[in-house]
Amino acid sequence: MTLSAPPSLTKRERTLAWLRGEETDRLPAVHFGFWRETLQEWAEQGHLTADQAAQYGDGNEVDDWICEQLGFDHAWTCWGWSNLQLDPLFERRVIKELPDGSRHVLNEEGVVELEVPGATSIPAEIEHLLEDRESWEEHYLPRLQWQDERVGDVPASVPDRPLGLWCGSLIGKVRNLLGVEGLAYMQMDDPDLLCEVIDTCAGLCLRGVEEMLKKDVTWDFAHFWEDICYNHGPLVQPAFFADLVKPWYARITALLHEHGVEFVSVDCDGCIDHLLPHWFEAGVNIMFPIEVGTWNASIAPWREQYGPGLLGVGGMRKHVFAEDRTAVDAEIERLKPLIDLGGYIPCPDHRIPPGAKWELVQYYTEKLRGL
């Protein structure tokens, strides 16, 4: 008997079927976006225009065009957004000019950063406006209140990709506002205030999700951002996370599941192993972007420990795009056993960095689509 191949699917159908372990026409090719400097390099090389490089945004029309040219199905990005940030944001302003041309700049979150001319990495943090109850109640609490104007509009045009709902950040945003040291000190110096900060930020996220679930949309997945880990593990104690953050995750994911949202993903860089069980137990079933790093993160040991319900998007070493076809072939061979596990979609483990070769990315997606 000859089995017929499954019919060609839409990009949305293909990705959802793959995550469910259903029959598909092929493996979806997914990406995490591009650094602005990468797009500028590609514009200089003639692969896109300077206007396209400047106008790029996650999931917008330029992104769709780049996906088409490079051979990706789509980016792993959200379609529905509410404003879950400080509102209003702080006005960016220069605090101090230094002799070497660098500057101390107050950013939109009330953090003073060191801006160095020509630097493209994350700027160093000098100080944080949020440090005690007085600064919290004066500058932050009023900016984290719910208003109906925060609810996002659903675009008229539905893209051909899974429809993701933005759920905000329950602890990563708090880490941004306080800094790593500030977060650690507040745990000891004023735990009641820290609990209030977390509950306020998480409550705002919950309200945003509640309102977006009222839209006439079939959401395919929901997505959180945290970045609360580094290359040796979490930036907070797992017990602290379990006590103060995990219950909010469970509450929001329960609401999502009540509304038929099948997949919930969390974006956290770094070594997430010690926080992963808490996310998974609280209803998050997709880990993203599985940053390989020096600690060699992979879905394989997680799947062995937590079972087939633990899914993943990511885990592909993005730096091979700056090398050659041999390096890309070797990376794909490394990924094949992980792909065979099912419920896992390879994706560059962060935004594609400067130095990536346009033709090599095309070669990667061509090989991937042939698996």
Keywords:
371 residues, alpha/beta, four-stranded antiparallel β-sheet, 13 helices, disordered N terminus
Could you characterize the architecture of this molecule?
The protein has 371 residues and is α/β, with parallel strands linked by helices. It folds into three domains: 1-76 and 313-371, no CATH class; 91-128, no CATH class; 130-288, TIM Barrel, CATH 3.20.20. It has helices spanning 11-20, 36-44, 50-55, 61-70, 133-140, 172-189, 191-212, 238-244, 246-258, 276-281, 299-306, 325-339, 358-369, and strands at 30-31, 74-75, 93-97, 103-106, 111-115, 124-128, 164-168, 221-225, 229-230, 233-234, 263-267, 286-288, 311-316, 344-348. It has a six-stranded parallel β-sheet with strand order 7-8-11-12-13-14. The longest helix is centred in the middle third of the chain and has 22 residues, at 191-212. The chain is globular, with a radius of gyration of 21 Å. Residues 1-5 have low confidence and may be disordered.
